[in-house]
């Protein structure tokens, strides 16, 4: 079983001839609406991989919230801990994209910002949770409440979006498996250019002030696994695929990894399956697994 504590959005993508400049009004040539939010994306991925998933998140009492609920329900995700907040609209990302793929994105966290520690307690008290999976699109206090909760046997954190490395440092000691991508690993270890080469990854990981396991996702290069307690790292290459849309690949990776760990798989074994399914998810558009959206 996997419990995901995180965000859910209904995103709007507007296609434009070119990205507008400040003060300009442009007509879109088309628009679409896709479910997203890292929490919901990862919950769907874990469910598609075969996990029983409970989603702890928040949406508004609006049409967008209904759409998100119905998509998560179609994937069999348990929504008994989903908060329907009357105080804020469902979160949304508005993406403006031109034909060259140039884009501009504005995120309104909306109800995601209202997911509070008390909601986490209400959801987790009395449970036993083999794997608790979190990201950073809900308040850090809420992530901390989840990671410290005694229900959680194994805490997996995808530190995205990174925000402040200092704030995150407080949560890191509570984490069992940290899953950054290359740019998040760079930000966690003092910046510098991303992408980080495979050769540099080990050096960067050794600079983390953190004792748990780390799995670094490396895009087309797959992932690098650093077990806790200093066991030697392993590189898990990704299969070569015809990638057409890599958005959300990291979310698929995290959801599948969490499922594997909840089944008692070793970290490397769980990573192998996550790498394969994440690679496959880049071969079709709109990256939640079969049905849903982008992060
Ligand atoms: P994020 O989406 O967070 O930036 P990555 O780009 O590291 O994360 O991708 C996550 C995973 O998705 C990788 O570990 C890999 O398994 C898969 N993946 C992403 N891009 C590709 C690609 N071009 N070819 C094959 N696999 C990919």
From TrEMBL:
It is found in: Cytoplasm. Requires a divalent cation, most likely magnesium in vivo, as an electrophilic catalyst to aid phosphoryl group transfer. It is the chelate of the metal and the nucleotide that is the actual substrate. SUPFAM superfamilies: Ribokinase-like. Its cofactor is Mg(2+). The keyword Transcription regulation does not apply. It catalyses: D-ribose + ATP = D-ribose 5-phosphate + ADP + H(+). It comes from the Bacteria. GO terms for biological process: D-ribose catabolic process. Residues 1-290 form the Carbohydrate kinase PfkB domain. Pfam families: PfkB. Pathway: Carbohydrate metabolism; D-ribose degradation; D-ribose 5-phosphate from beta-D-ribopyranose: step 2/2. K(+) binds at residues 245, 247, 281, 284, 286. The keyword Iron-sulfur does not apply. Catalyzes the phosphorylation of ribose at O-5 in a reaction requiring ATP and magnesium. The resulting D-ribose-5-phosphate can then be used either for sythesis of nucleotides, histidine, and tryptophan, or as a component of the pentose phosphate pathway. Homodimer. This is Ribokinase. It comes from Ornithinimicrobium humiphilum. The gene is rbsK.
């Amino acid at each position: 079983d996997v419990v995901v504590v995180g965000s859910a959005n209904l995103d709007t993508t507007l296609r434009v001839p070119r990205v507008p400049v400040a003060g300009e009004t442009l007509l879109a040539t088309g628009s679409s609406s896709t479910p997203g939010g890292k929490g919901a994306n990862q919950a769907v991925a874990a469910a598609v991989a075969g996990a029983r998933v409970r989603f702890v998140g928040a949406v508004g009492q609006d049409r967008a919230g209904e759409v998100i609920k119905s998509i998560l329900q179609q994937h069999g995700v348990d929504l008994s801990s989903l908060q329907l907040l009357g105080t804020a609209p469902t979160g949304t990302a508005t993406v403006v994209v031109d034909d060259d793929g140039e884009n501009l994105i504005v995120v309104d966290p909306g109800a995601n910002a209202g997911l509070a520690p008390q909601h986490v307690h209400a959801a987790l008290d009395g449970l036993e949770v083999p794997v608790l999976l979190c990201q950073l699109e809900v308040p850090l206090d809420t992530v901390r409440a989840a990671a410290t909760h005694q229900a959680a046997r194994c805490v997996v954190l995808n530190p995205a979006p990174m925000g402040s490395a200092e704030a995150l440092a407080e949560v890191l000691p509570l984490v069992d498996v940290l899953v950054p991508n290359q740019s998040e690993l760079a930000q966690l270890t003092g910046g510098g250019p991303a992408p980080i080469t495979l050769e540099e990854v080990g050096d960067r990981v050794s600079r983390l002030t953190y004792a748990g396991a780390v799995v670094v996702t490396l895009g087309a290069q797959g992932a690098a696994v650093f077990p806790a307690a200093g066991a030697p790292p392993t590189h898990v290459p990704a299969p070569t695929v015809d990638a057409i849309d890599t958005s959300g690949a990291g979310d698929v990776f995290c959801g599948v990894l969490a499922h594997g760990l909840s089944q008692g798989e070793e970290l490397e074994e769980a990573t192998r399956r996550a790498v394969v399914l994440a690679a496959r998810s880049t071969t079709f558009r709109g990256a939640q697994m079969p049905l849903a959206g982008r992060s």
